[in-house]
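Methods: example folding runs. The two proteins below were folded one after another, and each record is reproduced exactly as written to the output file, sequence line first and structure-token line second.
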Amino acid sequence: MKISIVTSYTNPEERRDPWREAISCFEDIADEIIVVGKNIPYEFEWGIWNKEFQKAFDDSSGDWVIRMDIDYFVHEKQIQKLKNNLIKYKEYPGVVFPQYQFFVPTKYSYHTNLCLAVNKTKFPDIKLNGGTDKILPTINNKILNFKKLPWLDVPIWQYDGIFRTKNIIAEDRARFARAWHRYSNNYDKRGGPTKELAYDAWFNFQKTRFKNHIFNVNIQDHPKYIKERLKDLKENQFGYSAFGIAESVSPSIFDYLKSYKNKSFFKIKSKIV
């Protein structure tokens, strides 16, 4: 069995993406790594990621192709389990992972479920063109039904802008807001075209999301690839205190119950095919 990983980054040093650490992780998982997005223009068109990832998928030679953002990690203790499951579920078009989202290193949320690994050998007609971001896997223009796919108890650890400063985030959010406006003719929840409007919208949204960051973890328990960088977080970086959110937002009992329920359901579902 051969595994390909497709990922993307644009100016990763400027954007403070953990790209070196992520690539190191991917090298322990995959036989082939394809990086796209290096030449994405600053003012990009919304559907461009579909074209980039689809070309990478088409060019990949793996039996399984895993789409990983450049801030996604698999814990080294889970890599063999991941590979064993891809062999086990070789008749399925894809598999589903839980995502653990980090704003600060000591807490995470059970954020969502993701179908990141798709079976190219058995299902070569899969396209990465579904959903709002136009990168979810589809067959015959229908997004793969998660209910019919195996769920793997192999978490994706996501470090959501954790190393970025306010200015980097504001600039990034503004250009994404402008791209969304060109695509949809509205800013929706993205605030507006300026750094100030886009940052304020993003920050307020992060405050609502942090209520779900109820699971505790020690820095020593993070994937080995990222631990040292997490230890070196500076006060001007989001991951230091989520720009004060970690000190001002407290989950409710409802938030705790909801989060534990969702995480427990995934663990149960991962035992059933």
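Second run, written to the same file directly after the first:
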Amino acid sequence: MNICICVRKRPLFDKEYQGGEIDAVSASNPRVVVHQPMYKVDGITKFVKDTNFTFDNAFNENENS
């Protein structure tokens, strides 16, 4: 038996937008990327660490079935 893994990124809620939250996840079939803002060791320099995940299917918050 084969298993197919499908994921869908949920949109941010209005409360999250109003609270200043950022959308830190991107989805583009078949990949999902989590963008994690970080500081270098100096504590000043900012950068974004991207972590990639691959699934059988990945859908963004705007896609319909």
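Comment on the second run: The first strand starts at residue 6 and ends at 8.
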